[in-house]
Amino acid sequence: MNSFTPVRAARSSRHGWVDIAKGICIIAVVGLYARNDLEALFGQAGWLDPWSAFARPFRMPDFFLLSGLFLSAVIQRPWRSYLDTKVAHYVYFLVLWVAILLAYDTAVLGHEPAAGSAIATVKLYIWKLIYPDHMLWFIQTLPAFFIVTRLLHRVPRWLLWLVAAAAMASHVRTGFAPLDNFNAYYVFFLSGHFGAPLIHHLAEKARQRPPLTWGLIVLWAVLNQAAVSAGLTHVGGLDLLAGFVGISAIIALSSLIADVSWLRWLSYAGSNSIVVYLGFYIPLTQFTRLVHAQLPELPMHLVATLSVLCGAAVPLLLHRLIKDSALRFLFVRPRWAKLVTTASPAAAQSA
């Protein structure tokens, strides 16, 4: 299963918590970028400031763990099929959305200087493919995880995991962002892949014992906030521990609320996380600039809430509106961009 998959049939209730967990994480990602934009425009971000700090230990680690959760089902596929769903899928969106966001940043926000010539524009675009802006670094990193894991699948799991954990905990920075991102998060991806049975068992046990689970979640929230406030989640090794504890809490929480009817929107956002992930930045930044220009006196907590809602809801609505139009290529990879043009229903579901 890809971390990001276009609209599809709902999962069985047994694994319904996965989409809830992804929904929590994608809302946390939108909140982070809303916080950054509001801070730049208004000098404050309301409740998004403490929330973004609270979510940092688990926000991206959980996304990467969920991305590896169902890898065992497909890792032995023929290389062409594997590369199609695990590499070409993300490369397509990276190539497309780097161009879209570069044009937006240059022409609308003025964040990037005009290139001045076609050659300079191409050079800048290639640079952005290597060092993606905004949220696109995640889409760049995932294919590397899938390729490396497939190539090293015969390496003892315990050895590969220990090396990945040491790379994360050491906080070694090379200055080459793709490699640094790989080192920072590969251990979580491997944990999702190697630990899938344990993770599903944790989710099931959490569902079976709600009072105990809620008590542990509250305890985690208190301890996580204390660790964040003390700066402990930036310390090598402790950030790794905080990541796994936070992931466990989100899995448990997601399992408890997976069947809550009024939270179906969160599951929907999670099951369409690529839509939100790719599409939230433009409506979010347009909304915050509109408020800054026209309604600067609105309470910041309200602005923060509306910013997140706008960032998450607009791309989902846009996706529904264009899914049968020529613009669907924005969120759904077209046939010409696929290495494998046909797949069985079972293969499509696990992709």
From TrEMBL:
Give the membrane topology, semicolon-separated if more than one: Multi-pass membrane protein
Pfam families referenced in this protein's UniProt entry, alphabetically:
Acyl_transf_3
Matching entries from InterPro entries are given as: Acyl_transf_3_dom
Q: Which GO terms describe its molecular function?
A: acyltransferase activity
Q: Does the keyword ATP-binding apply?
A: no
Q: Which UniProt keywords apply?
A: Acyltransferase, Cell membrane, Membrane, Transferase, Transmembrane, Transmembrane helix
Q: Where are the transmembrane segments?
A: 16-34, 54-75, 87-104, 134-152, 159-176, 182-200, 212-234, 240-262, 274-292, 298-318
> What does the UniProt entry say about where the protein is found?
Cell membrane
Q: Which domain of life is it from?
A: Bacteria
Q: Which residues form the Acyltransferase domain?
A: 16-315
**Cross-referenced PANTHER family:** INNER MEMBRANE PROTEIN YCFT (PTHR40074:SF4), O-ACETYLTRANSFERASE WECH (PTHR40074)
Q: Which family does it belong to?
A: Belongs to the acyltransferase 3 family.
Q: What is this protein called?
A: Acyltransferase family protein
The organism encoding this protein is Leptothrix discophora
